[in-house]
Design a protein that fits this description.
little secondary structure, 6% strand
Length: 66
Amino acid sequence: YGYNIFDQRMETGVFSDTGTASYTTYPILGQVPLSVNRIGTVRDLMARPEWYVAPRQVQLGLSIGF
């Protein structure tokens, strides 16, 4: 069984302003509080891994019957 054999980065959701899941033109820098306690970066906040299909998956099985 194989899924996404060629490991293409296909989008399942997109930003409404650009039509792509890769980037947005919304100015979020003014909306994100910059704090030393904040985990990650602004780029991490914009990353939407759930908007892409799963990466390449290959499953093999073996069945033995007696």
